[in-house]
Design goal:
Helix content: 40-55%
Number of helices: 9
Strand content: 5-15%
Number of strands: 4
CATH class of the largest domain: Alpha Beta
Largest sheet: 4 strands, antiparallel
CATH architecture of the largest domain: 2-Layer Sandwich
Distance between the termini: 34 Å
Structural class: alpha+beta
CATH superfamily of the largest domain: GAF domain
């Protein structure tokens, strides 16, 4: 069972903004998730280490990959038990998707301005409240931060996110950010929301 802090770290693993620092931040998050004392991240020719740099043999070496796409490895140092290793493997899977999507966004970031995003969201079946939640998510806000800034509960924000995922045909925050900000033509358009739906969204 994860602690409250561990759940917060998992949330931070899917926050890609700012893109340039995501690989180091994500590696640090995975290390903190399991109480590792340091890390060494290898992405192709790039090597990033915690400060101070770890010494000695790693306690665990995690393969970073998404499907058949190999990204690199993450070495964790310290003393890790079986449960910590299991959690680290789950964290590495989330982190791998974050690396892949941060690369996609970084390469295509100039294709869609905030005006483009807002105009595109207006053509989706999202209600005004749902569009507001998407906008806050794109700015890098966590579920708790969105709840606090909108006056909603965390449970209500999660309900909105489930509806948004279903309407836009995505399955995670990372995929939502990647599609909305970096890939054209993949968000389904839909009819304008009904008056009843709009009213309920602003309640």
């Amino acid at each position: 069972m994860l602690t409250h802090r561990q759940w917060e770290i998992v949330e931070q693993l899917v926050e890609l903004d700012p893109l340039g620092t995501y690989p180091r931040r994500g590696a640090a998050h995975v290390a903190e998730l399991v109480g590792a004392t340091g890390f060494r991240l290898r992405l192709g020719e790039e090597v990033v280490t915690s400060e101070p740099s770890p010494v000695g043999a790693p306690a665990a070496t995690l393969t970073l990959a998404v499907g058949e796409e190999a990204l690199g490895t993450l070495e964790l140092h310290g003393v890790l038990g079986d449960e910590a290793r299991r959690i680290a493997e789950h964290g590495a899977r989330i982190y791998s998707k974050g690396i892949r999507n941060s690369r996609r966004l970084d390469g295509q970031y100039g294709q869609r301005t905030i005006e483009d995003v807002n105009a595109m969201l207006e053509r989706t079946p999202l209600t005004p409240r749902e569009r507001d939640v998407v906008g806050r998510l794109l700015s890098g806000a966590s579920t708790r931060q969105i709840a606090k800034s909108t006056g909603l509960t965390v449970a209500t924000v999660n309900t909105y996110l489930k509806r948004i995922f279903a309407k836009l045909g995505v399955h995670s925050r990372v995929e939502l950010v990647a599609r909305v900000t970096g890939t054209r033509g993949v968000i389904p358009a839909g009819p304008a929301p009904s008056a009843a739906e709009t009213d309920s969204s602003t309640a």
